[in-house]
């Protein structure tokens, strides 16, 4: 049976009963419109914890004006079926006014590590992400929280927040789940026309090309990124936001690989901004 | 028996044993050099919780360059005696390097409510306070945390942080403890020369004058504050940083009283900056 909580108080009541029984809690924060990527997170959380809370919340404070807050796809009935099928028993589905007081004025800021990649073009994005994830971790009192590696910078930023604030939760990163043809699963893939859907394959092809070069011994960021960009630029529907190589632990630009690195990209396919990445040497 | 933990891991180990037994935990965050004001917080925490953790930590990130970080008084042996005498069983006494990683980059910011009063002259102060208190709340997993009303803006800011981040801790504000002649107890009183110690009484006399006027029905902030300032300005060793009236819930300037207000001041006595306040209509 799936319990739906719409306010923090409702969710906390369920959680406090679990905690009183000494049960462990897994948290899977999502923006809904769930796909097999989310499903893999929920199943892993179910396997590793006594109880799992999935949050379904399109968080307004991580969107900037002009981004796709209003059009972000939503289908809560389908989400509930997927969540229940994956074995979670609590879904937290608040409205923005349930989660943010009108005079809310507290933000969790992770500096430095948020300056590169998505932080460059989305300067208030990670502040919104960290604030809502901090809230969800507090509401759920989670022992473990699950994040996809597709949002790799987000995963690094959340790990840093949890470490720096001495939070009592283990952050678990999970592999990217892809369509059969390679496209990374994303709720935003639904924005793509048939023609754009084909063009979007340049992202995973660039990932594969970058991986191939690095596994063959290439250690120059310029060479790896150059090959990846060339491949993407050959696609007329694609426009690069960024293709970059950074250190995986602190998200700083890398010229020559000598430790774990994140190679990440954001690419517009038509009007849709897609991201993909790989981690090398972890 | 008093246990001294110097790292978050040591403190968390003690706390997790308490939590496994279902015990409630009270937290009293301090900067040490404890006096009867702190003692009253610890005793209340002991009365209201199964176990109490007192932290003794002069938090560098809430001091700005030029403030009194280096000279802030310290006496850990005396602090331990007071803490044990008041009935707490765990003291958390880290060095800055135990609490902050060299690459720590996460801050908790409460905006708006931190703009007035002490926030005007100490613009990074509350960011440092909120960040360390958030960490201490996570380390202690406190059910209740105790703060003196002498730092009234701090109390309001911490309450707002806990509310906005859905933290699982109750913030308890406790009354100002004063010397027999009225001076609010403060670790910084030790900076005062004999002559300054006498001059410092203008703060509590101004508080008493403001309270007297408001209890007599005065509702104009300008009138109340004017009388208080006149009294302070008559003292040659005193220099006003601010004397202000703000709404108690959101720390916004008030012209005419029509709800709970905080009347707060910061006054230099020689080189020592002292604060005092009263709340009216709560």
Write up this protein.
- The structure is a homodimer of 282-residue chains.
- The first copy, chain A, has helices at 8-20, 36-48, 76-86, 96-99, 118-121, 125-140, 152-164, 194-199, 201-215, 221-233, and strands at residues 3-5, 25-30, 51-56, 90-92, 106-110, 144-148, 170-174, 238-247, 261-269, 272-280.
- In chain A, helix 6 crosses helix 7 and helix 9 (201-215) runs antiparallel to helix 10 (221-233).
- Chain A has 2 domains: 3-174, 3-Layer(aba) Sandwich (Rossmann fold), CATH 3.40.50; 187-277, Pantoate--beta-alanine Ligase, Chain: A,domain 2 (2-Layer Sandwich).
- The first copy, chain A, has 10 helices and 10 strands.
- In chain A, the strands form 2 sheets. A 6-stranded parallel sheet of chain A has the order 1-4-3-2-6-7, sandwiched between helices. A 3-stranded antiparallel sheet of chain A has the order 8-9-10.
- The radius of gyration of chain A is 19 Å and the shape is globular.
- By secondary structure, chain A is α/β, with parallel strands linked by helices.
- In chain A, 38% of the residues lie in helices and 22% in strands.
- The mean pLDDT of chain A is 97.
- Chain A binds chain B through residues 8, 12, 100-101, 103-113, 130-131, 134-135, 138-139, 141, 160-161, 163-168, 250, and chain B through 8, 12, 100-101, 103-113, 130-131, 134-135, 138-139, 141, 160-161, 163-168, 250.
- Chains A, B: Pathway: Cofactor biosynthesis; (R)-pantothenate biosynthesis; (R)-pantothenate from (R)-pantoate and beta-alanine: step 1/1.
- Chains A, B: It holds the Pfam family Pantoate_ligase.
């Amino acid at each position: 049976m799936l319990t739906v909580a719409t306010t923090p108080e409702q969710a906390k009541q369920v959680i406090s009963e679990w905690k009183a029984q000494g049960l462990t809690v897994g948290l899977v924060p999502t923006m809904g419109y769930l796909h097999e990527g989310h499903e893999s997170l929920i199943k892993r959380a179910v396997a590793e914890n006594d109880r799992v809370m999935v949050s379904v919340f399109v968080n307004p404070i991580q969107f900037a004006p002009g981004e796709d807050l209003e059009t972000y796809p939503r289908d809560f009935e389908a989400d509930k079926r997927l969540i229940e099928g994956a074995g979670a028993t609590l879904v937290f589905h608040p409205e923005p006014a349930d989660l943010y007081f009108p005079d809310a004025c507290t933000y969790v800021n992770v500096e430095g590590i948020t300056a590169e990649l998505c932080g460059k073009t989305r300067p208030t994005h990670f502040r919104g992400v960290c604030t809502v994830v901090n809230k969800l971790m507090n509401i759920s009192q989670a022992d473990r929280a699950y994040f996809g590696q597709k949002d790799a910078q987000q995963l690094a930023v959340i790990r840093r927040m949890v470490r720096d604030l001495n939070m009592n939760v283990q952050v678990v990163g999970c592999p990217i789940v892809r369509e059969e043809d390679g496209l990374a699963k994303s709720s935003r893939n639904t924005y793509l026309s048939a023609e754009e859907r084909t063009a979007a394959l340049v992202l995973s092809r660039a990932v594969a090309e970058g991986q191939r070069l690095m596994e063959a011994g290439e250690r120059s960021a310029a060479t790896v990124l150059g090959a990846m960009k060339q491949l993407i630029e050959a696609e007329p529907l694609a426009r690069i936001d960024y293709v970059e190589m950074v250190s995986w632990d602190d998200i700083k630009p890398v010229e020559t690989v000598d430790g774990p690195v994140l190679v990440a990209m954001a690419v517009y396919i038509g009007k849709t901004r897609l991201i993909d990445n790989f981690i090398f040497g972890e």
